[in-house]
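writing this on my phone so excuse typos. first protein, seq and then structure
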Amino acid sequence: MRNSLPKKTLLGLSALLMASAAVPAMAQDEAASEESASSITISGSAAVTSDYRFRGVAQSGGDFAIQGSIGASHESGFYVGTWGSSINFAGGTEIDVYGGWSKEVASGLTVDVGMTYYIYPDAGVATGPTDFFEPYAKISTTIGPVEGVFGVAYAWGGQSALADESNVYVSGDLSTAIPGTPLTATAHLGYSDGDSFLSTLQGTDNNYLDWSVGLDYAITDKLTFGVKYTDTDDAPAQKDFTDSSILATLSVSF
């Protein structure tokens, strides 16, 4: 018979072989984990504004509002995030949770589709249903020095906060850097059409235009101060609701 190795030696060799096999496996797992982490980008922002206007309509009653956001995006184009602001109704807080997919589908052309869930967590029972979903789609492109974003959002009827009413919002935004300066000029035009509270201002036609023009000053690559003039075609305009206003916003991104 051939001489056999002692049992302790065999056990020791087996353990060594198992450990040797585990080392590259662990290294691969760590590399995969690092690669997965590097494919995800976390970003956020914080801001204070002299008046929070949503589609031309004041949400903070002409008073200052504090806002913030945080989001995560994957290299595949999928993203999720949340944005919040102080308001002067429905308990004083709005939180928007959103998710979607954004990708450059052709040179200089980016498509963005997703959905926003508007939440008013402090709204009392007396306020009634407040939360609702709104899908959206956007197309972004660059024409020379001008960047443009064109979008549509649709809040369908049947949701508890909207009853049987619905609303469509179409918008266009343009921006361009002013050469030789830290300034960026912006312009916005939006049209709201529907029967829900999202488009009801004055009268009974339940549709309106809103627009704004402004300048953003890049104090640093993370800190921005912006000023813009905003207005709607609501007549007669209501003070601190739909009247024309000059807004100032200081924001930081990270």
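second protein below, same order as before
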Amino acid sequence: MTVELAPRPANEERRAQAVVKTGMLEHDQGDLFQIYCDLAQDITGFDTATFSLFDADHQCHIAAAGRETEGKSLRNVHNVCSYVLLNTEPLLAADLSESEQFKDFPNIRNGGAKKGYAGFPVINKDNYALGSLCMVHDTPKAMGADKVELVKKITANMAHQLDMQTEQRELTSQKMLKALDIFAENNPDCAFADFKHFIRLCCDFDIDMEDSVRLKASGLAEATPSGKAGLSSQGRQLQFEMGLQTKVMNKIKITGDQANIMLDDMLSQIGGL
């Protein structure tokens, strides 16, 4: 038997698009939000605290305290956390088995346990409930008004972090598009792959010497004393004209594999235009 879907917010299409724009669904960045789950668990005394984002069809678990994250679960009518998205205020139930709204849900009625529940929407600056911070206790448990206010502050910080993620991706992509135009205008004989290698040099990433051949021919790269490819003085001038000078690039708070993933993601989007 097919289970119907949970109710959706009135702005569901735009809300789901905003979730995708955070970039959190493509790449595992749960570590950025783990501290919020730990803090919520410590403050409230609930057994578990879970942060989830909701795309069009699924609840996507991002980080958790007191339990393992579980990947995705369907946003069907019996998914309690889906109802958190429908209101700006938290969804509180000292005992789910006594809740008029949820007591007849099969997973609650047949679970045989009385559980306390507190779900807080994570609402971004555009008033979209992108996700939820939900706490569960294995026995009935109410949350006092003072704790509710503290968790609201936690979710406000989580929403701000998500907004920053989105803005950083959008601004960096715009910068890359502008840089691509300038690079192509100045180096018509170079291919898109050369632009990608040039950007990697701007980020102080290593590239293979064979990948720097055309950049060297264009005067943009040269061999360094260590035998690796590096930007020439002409290359550094172009880097400045493209708005990708080191000081600006260093403002992007990503390192290592995460930096490579984000760079490859941006370049793949540009390449598809």
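The two ends are 43 Å apart (CA to CA). thats all i got for now
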